[in-house]
Amino acid sequence: IYLQPKWDIVNDCIVGAEALVRWIKKDGSMIYPSDFIPLFETNGFIVKLDHYIYLEVLQYFKNAVERGEKVVPISVNVSRVTITSPDFLDFYIEKKRKYNVGDDFIMLELTESFAMDDNNSIKEIVEKLHKNGIKCSLDDFGSGFSSFNVLKSVPFDELKLDRCFIQNTDSPEKDEIVLKMVIEMAKSLGITIVQEGVETREM
After folding, report:
1. pLDDT tens digits, one per residue of 158-177
2. Order of all β-strands in the sheet with 2-8
3. What is the pLDDT of residues 171-202, one digit of tens each?
4. E-assigned strands of the chain?
5. What is the pLDDT of residues 46-60, one digit of tens each?
6. Cβ(72)–Cβ(14) below 8 Å
7. Pairing of strands 158-161, 134-141
C-alpha cells in the first residue's frame, strides 16, 4: 500500500490519507492500478485485492498504535464487485473489530456509479457501516454519473470531487462557479469535501 495524504488547506496539515495499491515487480519496476484493476474487476480477483488492502491498513493501524504513533483516518477503495459480494458487510465489520481499530478511523470509498444504481440498498449499507464505526465516501463525484439525489438520500460523510473540477478548460469562470456551488451544497449537508488531483498551491 501507498498512503496518499489528505491535506487541510485551511490549517495546513495532514488530516487523513487514502490507501493506494501499487504492484511492484521482481525487477523493482512499478505497475499502476489502471493497468491491472480493470482485469481484476473482470475476473473477480478484485475482491481478494480489496480485502488485502483493507487488512494491510488495519495492520498498519494496529502497529502504529502499539508504537505510540499518532494516526489519522485512512480511506480504502471498495469496488462494485466487492460491495455486491454476499459477505461484504460481515467481512469489513468483523475485521475492524478483530484489529481493534477505533471508530471513524476507517473510511470506505464507494464509486458514485454504484451509489446511483440502487439508492435504497446503498443507504442501508452506509447506515450499517456507520453503526459499526466505519465512515463512507462518495468517490469520483462529477466524473460523469453525478446525481444529487444520492447526496440527498444517502448519509455520506465525505464527497470526493473528481479532478475534472480543477482541470484547465475553455471556461474557467464557469468551472469556478460550479465548483463553489458543489462545495457550498456539500457543506450545507454536513459533508466533508475532498478534491482529487491537487498538486500545486495554485490549484
Report:
1. 999 988 888 877 777 888 89
2. 2-8, 13-20, 74-78, 106-111, 134-141, 158-161, 192-195
3. 778 888 988 999 999 999 999 999 998 888 88
4. 2-8, 13-20, 23-24, 30-31, 74-78, 106-111, 134-141, 158-161, 192-195
5. 999 999 999 999 999
6. yes
7. parallel
